[in-house]
Amino acid sequence: MAHAVWSGALSFGLVALPVQLVTATESHTIHFHQLERGTSDRVRNKRVNERTGKEVRYDDIVKGWDAGDEYVLVEPDELDEIAPGRSKSLEISGFVDLDAVEPIYFDKTYYLAPKSKEYAKVYGLLREALAKANKAGIATFVMRNREYLVAVKAEDDILALHTLHWADEVRDPHEELPTLPGRAEPDRKELETAVALVDALTVEWDPSEYRDTYQEKVRGLIEAKRTGESVEKAEPAPEPTNVIDLREALQASVDRAKDRRKSGGKAKSGGARKSARGQGSGRDDLDGLTRTELYRRATDAGVPGRSSMNRDELIEALSGSGSKNRRRKKAS
């Protein structure tokens, strides 16, 4: 069970609701220790005085703002004293249409829960009101010596809190990206083919269908190095499409997507899963697929050890005989 990272009073109008905040997501990133090459010695970071080279205790460190010719020193206690909203208040100042908040402003998501069951009625009332009005409550609050702009909204049967970027934190893409093209009218035929490609590759949104394959590859690399096996390198990135061949590339992509859909590829949700879990695809059908496509089918089929398999091993496992042999070897 996750621990609350903040607790206080959520208020709207004259109504106050004691709540607690819990992080909605967790990271599955693999973390490595730093070692000196050729040894098993850990490398650790230290706080060192750059003039004397001596290590400095944490309690002896203060914050300093570089004012050019001198540093302005600020003690941690001084930052605590000026923090706004130290009363642990999360006050909704207004409600906005959900569609009015652009996605770029959303940062991190938390779950909001009533502090105790006796506040369930007020909690449920706010949730239902936000859902019915399709609005989000905008508020500010302080957590860990930092002020946040947030949006409180209804999601299914809970209230969620999304931290938002401040307006001056969002960069102007036209200032940051000088290579952005202007709004030129595209070639009609190319546009029609591009739209057809989007339609051909359209799937139903199901987040459970997507996995962090890089982390799986990292785990496969670790296991392979632990057992002395080799790991196939990833395929190189595709070459940029020549503008002259753009229409041909688009049409070829549309045709390929349609062929994959007919052969049970993953253009529509459910197709690939059904074929992969059946009696196994024929080897001839698999020879034309890339390793990435083969890996996706192996994932759908639940093939064990897939992250460390090369392309030929994936074909063998998916064609039927390979997966049976691997399961037999694992059981023996």
Structure at a glance:
Helices cover 33% and strands 20% of the residues. The chain is of the alpha+beta class.
Name the features:
single chain, alpha+beta, Ku70, Chain: A, Domain 2, 2 domains, 7-stranded mixed β-barrel, two-stranded antiparallel ribbon, 9 strands, extended, disordered C terminus
Structure description:
The protein contains eleven helices and nine strands. It has helices spanning 76-82, 120-133, 173-176, 188-200, 213-227, 246-262, 271-276, 283-287, 291-301, 311-318, 321-331; strands spanning 6-12, 15-23, 63-66, 71-74, 89-97, 106-114, 135-142, 147-155, 158-164. It is extended, with a radius of gyration of 27 Å. The two termini are 38 Å apart.
Order of strands side by side in the largest beta sheet? 1-2-6-9-8-7-5
Estimate the global geometry from the Cα principal axes. Answer: extended
Low-confidence parts lasting 5 or more residues at pLDDT below 50? 266-280, 321-332
Mean pLDDT: 82
Query: Roughly how many Å is the radius of gyration?
Result: 27 Å
Query: How many domains, as an integer?
Result: 2
The number of helical elements comes to 11
Largest sheet: 7 strands, mixed, barrel
The N- and C-terminal alpha carbons lie at a distance of 38 Å
Order of helices and strands: EEEEHEEHEEEHHHHHHHHH
Number of strands: 9
Q: What fraction, in percent, of the residue positions are helical? A: 25-40%
Strand portion: 15-25%
